[in-house]
């Protein structure tokens, strides 16, 4: 009964924790801290499996609630988490598992996007940018698999998802309430995280194209990736300034949606730096890994304490 009560309290926003574990794992991998990277990956996989079990349980026992939750942007954290963890597994050389993750992510994306769009409300909060994040996550994973497994045909659909993701970002931005930057509970950071994963998608496609030897339209993509990354870094600085101006130190699960953009900023900067040859971006990314690790660790400890307290109450 205790497990059932705890599972009942799980909300879709908790998928941001799995996303955060995955992206911090990638960041630590890129700076050479492999053991710590694997520890964060394990946390991400365990969280993903727990959330998947909750979804299956609701499908069997509480479909009205599952249907209601599927209409919210937070539902797309499942897609994003799958693509981020799949990308990390692809970097480990687990191509078959990454391909399964890619197929599953695309299937769920196709299922959820129409539902989320139909349930759209305006003005929107930061969680709305998950439409972009989930879409670009598919592009990132597709391009990563294309480069690591020489499945070059995946470059084209990855580019398609990248373009759709940019469109999603523009659509959400027009409906985003700017006051969220000073009153948001954590998910307002996704406004920057969506830009970061867009830059990462462009960078990964550039690397995949280089590995396959493509020419033509691909020559413009490094410039696009660098431009998006510069805008994203400016957004990161703005969000930090807003946090200093209006501190929000109370615990909120939506703060996992702060950890993810911080980690994604670091990873995208390093990847775009590598893809474009701009060493300054790579250096900035290496530095920004550590704030993401710090905030992620704080959230991990705080969330674990809340979970223990919830189990005791149940």
> Strand portion, in percent?
under 5%
> H/E series, N to C?
HHHHHHHHHHHHH
Largest sheet: none
Cα shape: globular
- Cα gyration radius (Å): 18 Å
Q: How does this model look, in words?
A:
- With 314 residues, the chain is mainly alpha-helical.
- Helix content is 78%, strand content 0%.
- It has 13 helices and no strands.
- Helix 2 runs parallel beside helix 12 and helix 12 (256-276) packs antiparallel against helix 13.
- The longest helix has 35 residues, at 279-313.
- The termini are close together.
- The mean pLDDT is 90.
Outline of the structure:
The chain is mainly alpha-helical. It is built from 13 helices and no strands. It is globular, with a radius of gyration of 18 Å.
How would the blueprint of this fold be written?
Blueprint: H1 2-8, H2 15-30, H3 34-61, H4 63-69, H5 77-91, H6 95-118, H7 130-149, H8 155-173, H9 180-183, H10 190-212, H11 221-245, H12 256-276, H13 279-313
Descriptive keywords:
mainly alpha; 314 residues; 0% strand
């Amino acid at each position: 009964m205790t497990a059932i009560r705890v599972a009942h309290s799980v909300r879709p926003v908790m998928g941001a924790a799995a996303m955060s574990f995955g992206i911090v794992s990638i960041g630590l991998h890129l700076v050479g801290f492999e053991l710590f990277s694997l520890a964060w990956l394990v946390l991400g996989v365990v969280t993903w499996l727990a959330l998947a079990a909750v979804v299956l349980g609701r499908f069997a026992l509480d479909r009205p609630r599952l249907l209601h939750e599927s209409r919210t942007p937070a539902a797309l954290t499942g897609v994003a988490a799958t693509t981020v963890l799949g990308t990390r597994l692809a970097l480990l050389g687990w191509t078959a598992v990454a391909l399964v993750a890619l197929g599953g992510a695309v299937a769920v994306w196709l299922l959820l996007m129409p539902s989320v769009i139909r349930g759209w409300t305006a003005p929107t909060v930061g969680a709305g940018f998950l439409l972009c994040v989930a879409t670009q996550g598919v592009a990132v994973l597709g391009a990563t698999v294309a480069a690591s497994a020489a499945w070059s045909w995946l470059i084209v659909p990855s580019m398609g998802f990248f373009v759709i993701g940019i469109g999603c970002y523009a659509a959400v931005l027009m409906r985003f309430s700017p006051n969220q930057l000073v009153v948001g509970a954590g998910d307002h950071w996704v406004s920057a995280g969506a830009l970061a994963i867009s830059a990462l998608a462009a960078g990964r496609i550039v690397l995949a194209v280089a590995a396959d030897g493509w020419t033509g339209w691909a020559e413009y993509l490094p410039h696009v990736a660098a431009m998006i990354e510069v805008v994203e870094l400016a957004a990161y600085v703005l969000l930090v300034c807003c946090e200093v101006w209006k501190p929000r130190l109370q615990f909120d699960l939506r703060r996992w949606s702060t950890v993810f953009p911080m980690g994604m900023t670091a990873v995208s900067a390093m990847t775009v730096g590598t893809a474009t040859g701009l060493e300054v971006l790579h250096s900035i990314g290496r530095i920004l890994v550590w704030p993401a690790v710090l905030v992620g660790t704080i959230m991990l400890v705080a969330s674990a304490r809340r979970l223990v307290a919830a189990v005791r109450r149940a």
